Amino acid sequence: DVKVTQSSRYLVKRTGEKVFLECVQDMDHENMFWYRQDPGLGLRLIYFSYDVKMKEKGDIPEGYSVSREKKERFSLILESASTNQTSMYLCASRQRQGWETQYFGPGTRLLVL
Amino acid sequence: DQQVKQNSPSLSVQEGRISILNCDYTNSMFDYFLWYKKYPAEGPTFLISISSIKDKNEDGRFTVFLNKSAKHLSLHIVPSQPGDSAVYFCAASNNAGNMLTFGGGTRLMVKP
């Protein structure tokens, strides 16, 4: 069974703080993704990574950066958190590129005050 | 502008009846479509998919229909069960599945 875990379920941060969200998958998947979910907007892709040290921008990368130093771990970084980054953040992984299913973590609900 | 739209934010259905969830898309380059289901406090889980070379795909109680000319797909759940109550997202891809574009979701409530 694929397991994708996220470091926190709930997080409260202040405007301007640096925020790290971590995601770990245990199935040796090549691809990993970060999405944010907002009411009415569905899931929007922030960044994804094909492999270690590789990253590609998604639809809404502004204000975010990512790091993938190890295959199983993909980190999302908010350099200077802002209130409009209050959202649910979902990590996903996939075996490889193509039509493979994406497996999601439980999400981190981030509140920026 | 959203390329994938689910125009009904919520749907309420009686147990045993059919649930029909709809999804429209604007990008004619999309060639692969998926439905994900999401329970509260959990991540979305894959439900069913269809490629553009087909117009129907079935998996047990779940059937997805694709109408390419109308750029419309629908998910049918028959019979609906209370455990199907969740938020359903449709998603589409146009580049060998590398990136998915999601709709806004439809909250399905199945009443016992």
Walk me through the structure:
The complex is a heterodimer of chains A (113) and B (112). Chain A is an all-beta fold. Chain A is built from no helices and eleven strands. In chain A, strands 2, 4, 5, 6, 9, 10 and 11 form a seven-stranded mixed sheet that branches. Helix content of chain B is 0%, strand content 54%. In chain B, the strands form two sheets. In chain B, strands 2, 4, 5, 9, 10 and 11 form a six-stranded mixed sheet that branches. In chain B, strands 1-3-8-7-6 form a five-stranded antiparallel sheet, with no helix packed on it. The mean pLDDT of chain B is 93. Chain A binds chain B through residues 4, 9, 35, 39-45, 48, 58-59, 90, 92, 97-107, and chain B through 2, 4, 6, 9, 32, 36, 41-46, 49, 51, 89, 91, 96-105.
Short overview:
With 113 residues, chain A is an all-beta fold.
Structural class of chain A: mainly beta
- SSE order of chain A in H/E notation? EEEEEEEEEEE
C-alpha Rg of chain A (nearest Å) = 13 Å
N-to-C span of chain B = 37 Å
Mean pLDDT of chain B: 93
Counted beta strands of chain A: 11
Order of helices and strands of chain B: EEEEEEEEEEE
Q: How much strand content do the residues of chain A show?
A: over 45%
Output mean pLDDT of chain A.
93
Most extensive chain interface and residues per partner: A-B, 26 and 26 residues
Give the % helix of chain B.
under 10%
Based on the structure, what is the oligomeric state of the protein chains? heterodimer
**What fraction, in percent, of the residue positions of chain A are helical?**
under 10%
How far from one another are the termini of chain A? 37 Å
Largest sheet of chain B: 6 strands, mixed
Low-confidence stretches of chain B: none
**What is the overall shape of chain B?**
globular
Structural class of chain B: mainly beta
Estimated share of beta-strand residues of chain B: over 45%
